[in-house]
């Protein structure tokens, strides 16, 4: 069926997933119009009938709620705003269809949902309706939004002051350089990267220590693992994130002395094969230590899980991409050409974990196999019907971070694409070509979980572990020197509302900050911790950078603004800036406000040009939508949130390249 697009130029609200800004991205949303929908009256009739069918379905199925509340005025007003004459928007067609017939009866809601045009139109109307409702919602975190707006103004000013140093037009005076505080930053992930972007290097001497010399946009690792985008398109070098940092050291922190304020660093081995001997260790002193070392995959207690692939870094994505190609090549060997079951086993991919990472990887693998197994054109067209993607999840719902309706939509979307989803299941063992599973039995009548479990063995070609995280060894080393109550039950470091690690000696308070996956942050004091997500880490990194830029006295609670009276205060140093002090006093920052997280929502790709979007401001929901329109929002946000213009251009080019030429399956 041919479809005719009706461009609706609007503004898609792209809420930042990694920081505290809100970007507005112009986008053209195409509502696909089949030829038989020839004029507005047809749409009127269709919406009336759809509403009737929806009410009928609701009456018959009381346990289900409608995803869409059709309002005829919404549709008509939207269409009529794009042309005074309906015939100009939808020219009359010679096709005779049932939609023009006034006697046509839409007997079920599913009939409209199966129509691509109506399905996409539903999502579009849902966005408009939710945006209109949001203006009437009370309880929006206006105070946090205003605070972040002023923070952004402050950040822009800091960036402008940095330009002369970046361009070599100016240099720090020896007096200013000698009074700068040394900030040692461990890691190059979301928290560290946000801190580097915001930190004022005229006041702070930044030393970054990380075994990887780049930041990676982790939400797109699944795309990189199948060749939709290239690795370098979604990364930024540490030195490029802030060109005026004092030093970057490629190595791994292996120890810390809290009292003496230094860290021991094991340098990376460089030029392997060309130089002999082990790389040296070195000791780096600090005034403040920012511990944002991330986490590792938690595969404890599962035999063989350590041999499964991961998806937490560019190296992981590169290994996974190579392994996928090898599995497809292995399944294409002549020895199993006539053995359908053996080919299927070799091309079966098991994903452990039904969170956003696992769901997005399943969707990307589906797209890859649809691409490479196309008849005649696909590189592995001989494997058509052999590739399988299996997603195993220990809970009863996929992506539990999302609201219930979107969890169900995630399950429906994956299963429609032929992805096998096994819920309430744990992996007991991973071996060579198999996975041993333990599944909770479900009552076939009531759907309730029973106490018994059923074990099964699944033949697989490759397993990817996307379930659970655990602290890295450096966090344990740090906790051994902190008070006993600093350790959270899962091994993370409990921090206060300014991300300061607790200290036995009060004079050391504020010398160590813990951010990201290594921190257990209780924002409201009720025992509920902020999730270990990129969004939280990015906002936390920017917050600590501002805390250090402003020069608060970090030994006090709350941290106080020092050097208010330079004539009588002998603690004034390079931090003293009378205009900046007045700016902070104007904002009411005689003391530092604690960190407050602004939840902007979540996104997840489910494959086949569909995605989940849960947009909110704080605890106030703005819109929840799934499908093709959500996919446009997903791509808009991911494009806007790339850390540099270079990355946005490269990612856009990669998307077009994979769309036109297909995904590259070469292994280098």
Secondary-structure map:
Layout: E1 4-15, E2 22-33, H1 40-60, H2 72-80, H3 86-89, H4 109-113, H5 116-134, H6 142-167, H7 174-179, E3 181-186, H8 190-198, E4 204-210, E5 214-216, H9 221-225, E6 235-237, H10 238-241, E7 247-257, E8 262-267, E9 281-285, E10 288-291, E11 295-297, H11 314-331, H12 340-346, E12 348-352, H13 356-372, E13 388-392, H14 404-416, E14 420-422, E15 425-431, E16 434-442, E17 449-459, E18 462-465, E19 469-471, H15 473-479, E20 493-495, E21 512-514, E22 519-521, H16 534-549, H17 578-586, E23 601-607, E24 610-617, E25 620-627, H18 628-640, H19 645-661
Parallel strand pairs: 3-4, 3-10, 4-7, 10-21, 12-13, 12-18, 13-14, 20-22
Antiparallel strand pairs: 1-2, 5-6, 7-8, 8-9, 11-19, 15-16, 16-17, 23-24, 24-25
Main features:
single chain, 668 residues, alpha/beta, 7-stranded mixed sheet, 4-stranded parallel sheet, 19 helices, 25 strands, 34% helix, 23% strand, disordered N terminus, oxidoreductase
